[in-house]
Write a structure and sequence with these properties.
It is built from 14 helices and 22 strands. The chain has about 525 residues and is α/β, with parallel strands linked by helices. It has two domains: about 290 residues, 3-Layer(aba) Sandwich (Aldehyde Dehydrogenase, Chain A, domain 1); about 210 residues, Aldehyde Dehydrogenase, Chain A, domain 2 (3-Layer(aba) Sandwich), CATH 3.40.309. The protein binds NADP nicotinamide-adenine-dinucleotide phosphate.
């Protein structure tokens, strides 16, 4: 029998009372560990986080909370090798892909630690300047933000067991709000180990960080009006969360990051052998293959001028042909596996659906896996699809195949290209490729309306840009419409979600005292 991982709630480690769910190695099919949350006293768990954890965090200044983040980052850095081993075993990732998750999480924590230190001794945030409400300024209004007196519940997706926790926990803890994380079951091991290391190191106050692994049953029922919930996952589960009475009746604030059919757009006016085409091809291939395409930000649709359709297909295909797929423990492998056999089946099913309206322009599926049994391993080869009818073939704008799959499509003129980009109905990110600053800026302005982030790749940033799909803590993560309507990160803007805003109306001397008390 494999080890049953413990949950950390109400300030102590507690194992579930049921048999649990077994987590598997997606390449070898071997059982690894089990998780279970049966029988946990959830009301007590949430109350402890709210009362004990919340009170302790709110008593600290921003600079002191920032120090906590730096301490958490140091603990994680010291145990990094163990996380790489767990990620290889449970997520099937090669080292570069593990880095996106593990090192990306540590980097985000460190970044918030720096920003938080700069906030100094404040405990609440002054929001804008005071405005006059009465003659001679004798009575004024000043907005402030104070940490919400509740808990932040994170329900996370399987693809980022590390970064998915820390990118949310960093702004929450810095705001003074305790965290309860429920990782996706398939890859919960890494999240659990990281939380265990941080708790065991004693760097956070009791109740500041809790983890519940296994079923999500009953979690939403615990939420009270001052709590917040941040969900990352599929649009279907997002709809269930949104319709819960905690949100519909008690106004629990929610942030939803759901699926997204992101695109890359090559502007008109470039030759087949131009830098713009080369940069687009490289980025599309990279996005399709990093983490086996299991990134919510990955490029799913590629929009190019009609005349370049064939040459772009060839350029992307040439890049994909270099991708070796299989067991991530083998040095020759560049792309590991999907997180589970269930995800493999889901990707094949999505691919079959898209193939009813597209054809394969590059199809790696006949290639042999390296060091992996295709009957067991959840390894998927990259497939570039194409359609000459992007207007009529609606599925390509609708189905997110969460694997190494993207679809190339031609546009007639720029207006048509932009229209197709907007058909994602709200996405996390689009990238634009070209050289003319004015044309790039005009297209960015247009696409910003339906994309949480617009990433512009011109030859002068070829070696410097941060990558279409890489989520940087400095920039907003989240998109409108189908992408969930959420907004995370973006520097200190992320703290807004964990605060309550209030307008304080008073005499100037009281507002002055309020400003000073922020620094008490
Ligand atoms: P999922 O099935 O919706 O699961 C997400 C999380 O919700 C898991 O922790 C899951 O727990 C939990 N859950 C399932 N049913 C629930 C319910 N009724 N109430 C409360 N929680 C529930 O999504 P997934 O398959 O793990 O993730 C893949 C999807 O996430 C993709 O569509 C991808 O686009 C999206 N994603 C988006 C972002 C973003 O930032 N926008 C980032 C990553 C992924 P169990 O695992 O225990 O079922």
């Amino acid at each position: 029998m494999t080890e049953l991982l413990a949950n950390h709630v109400a300030g102590r480690w507690q194992t579930g009372q049921g048999p649990g769910s077994t987590l598997l190695d997606p390449v070898l099919g071997a059982p690894l560990v089990r998780v279970d949350a049966t029988g946990l006293d959830l009301p007590a768990a949430f109350a402890f986080a709210r009362e004990t954890g919340g009170k302790a965090l709110r008593a600290l200044s921003h600079a002191q909370r920032a120090k906590l983040l730096a301490d958490v980052a140091a603990v994680l850095q010291a145990n990094r090798d163990a996380y790489y081993a767990i990620s290889t075993a449970n997520s099937g990732t090669v080292k570069n892909d593990t880095a996106v998750d593990v090192d990306g999480g540590i980097y985000t924590l460190s970044q918030y630690a720096k920003w938080g230190a700069a906030l100094g001794n404040d405990r609440h945030l002054i929001d804008g300047s005071a405005v006059v409400l009465a003659k001679d300024g004798a009575f004024q209004s000043q907005h402030i933000q104070v940490p919400t007196r509740g808990v932040a519940l994170f329900i996370n997706a399987f693809n980022f067991p590390s970064w998915g926790l820390w990118e949310k926990a960093a702004p929450a803890l810095l705001s003074g709000v305790p965290v309860i994380v429920k990782p996706a079951t398939a890859t919960a091991w890494l999240t659990q180990r990281m939380v265990k290391d941080v708790i065991d190191a004693g760097v956070l106050p009791p109740g500041a960080l809790s983890i519940i692994c296994g079923s999500s049953a009953g979690l939403m029922d615990q939420l009270q009006p001052m709590d917040v919930v941040s969900f990352t996952g599929s649009a279907d589960t997002a709809a269930t969360i949104r319709s819960h009475t905690a949100i519909t009746r008690h106004s629990v604030r929610s942030n939803i990051e759901a699926d997204s059919v992101n695109c890359a757009l090559l502007l008109p006016g470039h030759a087949a052998d131009s830098d713009a085409v080369a940069l687009l091809a490289r980025e599309v291939a990279r996005e399709m293959t990093v983490k086996s395409g299991q990134k919510c930000t990955a490029i799913r649709r590629v929009l190019v001028p009609q005349a370049l359709y064939d040459s772009v297909a060839q350029a992307i295909g040439a890049q994909l042909a270099k991708t070796t797929v299989g067991n991530p423990r083998n040095e020759a492998v560049r792309m590991g596996s999907l997180v589970s056999r269930a995800q493999y089946d889901s990707v094949q099913q999505g691919l079959r659906q898209l193939l009813t309206q597209t054809s394969a322009l590059h199809d790696g599926r006949a290639n042999a896996l390296i060091d992996a049994d295709p009957a067991i391993a959840a390894c998927a080869q990259p497939v570039l699809l194409g359609t000459q009818d992007p207007d009529g073939h609606a599925l390509v704008h609708d189905i997110e195949v969460f694997g190494p799959v993207a679809t190339l499509m031609p546009y007639r003129d720029l207006e048509h290209g932009l229209t197709l980009a907007h058909r994602g109905q709200g996405s996390l990110v689009c990238s634009i490729y070209g050289d003319d600053a004015s044309a790039l800026a005009t297209a960015a302005n247009d696409l910003a309306a339906s994309h949480g982030r617009v990433h512009i790749v011109s030859p002068d940033v070829a070696k410097l840009h941060s990558g279409h799909g890489n989520v940087m803590p400095q920039s907003q993560h989240g998109g409108p419409g189908r992408a969930g309507g959420g907004a995370e990160l973006g520097g200190l803007r992320a703290l807004d979600f964990y605060h309550r805003k209030s307008a304080i109306q008073a005499a100037p001397r009281v507002l002055q005292a309020l400003n000073q008390s922020a620094e008490a």
